[in-house]
Amino acid sequence: MSKQKLEVHSENILPIIKRWLYSEHDIFVRELVSNAGDAIHKLKILADQGIFHLGNEEFKIEIRVNKEEHTLTFIDNGIGMTAEEVQKYIAQIAFSGAEDFINKYKTNKESDQIIGHFGLGFYSAYMVAEKVEINTLSYSQGAEPVLWSCDGSSEYTIEKGSRNTRGTEITLFIDKSNEEYLEIHKLKEILKHYCSFLPYPIYLNDTLINSKQPLWIKPASECTTEEYLDFFHYLYPSEEDPLFWVHLNVDYPFHMKGILYFPKLRQGFDINKSTVKLYCNRVFVSDNCKDIIPNYLLALHGVIDSPDIPLNISRSYLQMDRTVRQLSGHISKKVSDSLNNLYRNEKDKFIASWHDISMVIKLGILEDDKFYERAKEFLIWKNTQGNWMTIEEYIEVNREKNRDKIFYTRDPAHFAHFLDMYHNQGIEVLCADAPIDPYLMQYLEKKLAPVTFQRIDAGIDESIIDKSKEKIVLDPSGKTEGAHLADFIRAKLGDDSIKVEAKSLANDNVTGFVMIDENKRRMRDYLMSMDRKAGSAEMRHLAEHTFVVNTNNPLIAAIQKVDHVDPELAKDLVKQAYELSLLSQREMDPGALNDFVARNNRVLEKLTNLASKGF
Prior knowledge:
Blueprint: H1 10-21, H2 27-48, E1 61-66, E2 71-76, H3 83-91, H4 98-105, E3 129-137, E4 146-150, E5 156-160, E6 167-174, H5 184-195, E7 202-204, E8 207-208, H6 225-235, E9 244-250, E10 256-262, E11 275-280, E12 283-286, E13 301-305, H7 322-345, H8 347-352, H9 354-367, H10 369-375, E14 380-382, E15 388-390, H11 391-402, E16 405-409, H12 416-424, E17 430-431, H13 437-448, E18 452-455, H14 481-493, E19 499-503, E20 512-515, H15 518-529, H16 537-542, E21 546-550, H17 554-565, H18 567-584, H19 593-612
Parallel strand pairs: 1-7, 11-13, 16-17, 16-18, 19-21
Antiparallel strand pairs: 1-2, 2-6, 3-4, 3-6, 4-5, 7-8, 9-10, 10-13, 11-12, 14-15, 20-21
Helix pairs in contact: 2-5, 7-10, 9-10, 9-13, 17-18, 18-19
């Protein structure tokens, strides 16, 4: 048996870099400008350590376009390179896992990106150039300029260069298929996208590109409201002012800075679409932070910058690891802490923002138990009288009256007549009109057991019964007056699927209401959201309900009298009272509306005739 070494040939690597490494050709600008910034930064470190003395010169990065010669040149006055360093950093392609690299990148899938930094950024230039030259002079005393040239093949030349000042200039000879990169407007757009916040001035044909300072690197204590708003509008020019913001600054166990804004959510906003911009050392990486931002915070806007985020080889996507999960958890904690502080210290501002932030908070509670433990302090609900409270506050105030029940309504306007019964008994009813609320209630019931949520039309609570007016006297047949009334209504409806009960409700003005079991309604609404057909047996079962008639209501009493004169009119009136309850509770089948209107006209006509006869 013999052992051999694998050979990796550069003629195989360069085509892969050109074709599969980078998803967008624009990235070569980011890579070369970033390298220029790194060269300057290295020289500053040497100066800080006393190894090199800096004068008063201005550090800068220049980009020059020459359409006549089809060249694009990137120039810096940074550390420069010696011939030996050019051989080490440019002529030798840093590489590991060659076989996996080749196999994976031929698939051109995001999921196949390799973790690591292989020093391949410079070679992105070959995506647009047929030849690249490097003319460089090292900071080292006595160094000679070096000229390196390669046409993208496995061969290159290296000779004495012409540069007489410290730094590096990289000249790309743009191929004909990529001449768009010789257009000033195109390059300006790319530079602003990727390099707006680099710490050194960038000039494109002598025009300064990056004049805006990244606000996230300043301490929060030194930032003004005007600066936060100005920076937000720089990032999102067409957006309204944000509601408030969270300034991030983490040094351990990882480094992360950023600013997250709570925007005003527009109708139709996609809460699953990430709008937070991800930077690495002030260089734009992606506007997709779905891996680093918890799902429930994707609606937030802003910037996150971390040198510790694990990027793939092309610095275009995050690689999931423990650091990313830690970042995600810290962001969640920082946001919830800021919300809690806002609620405690600026409650009016918090409540005024609730319409826009409630979905974020409720989603966070459903997705993250740790978030719930922090958010329960500021998960607020408005009651039907306009007062705001947390669930714990509601339970504490109403415990004796409600016996571990939390009463709520989805639509206070439609239930105004019905709500009076609860208000008159001093019972608070919460408003829960968001589509997510039923799921949130189910979650909270598990956390707060034995406490349960009950919609006001989901049961006959003792608190809305007027026991002083109950019709409980038995007649010779052994039935109460209430039982006779229920039989009467049931017969007039003529539908065995409709259950009927007669109760002494606390408000005489309420004719009755349609009662649907809380759990059945939740399941029905869930299945309907899943596009289940309303006509299925399962759905019919979940739609079962009870028509609760008020024994104290004058209309019900009048219908019984009408029955002695005109039984058909009494039948129409009963159906009308029943369907009015359905309509007011938004339970009427739209297909029944025509019959309802026709019956309504018929009833009015008959009542008019009876009135004219002196009935």
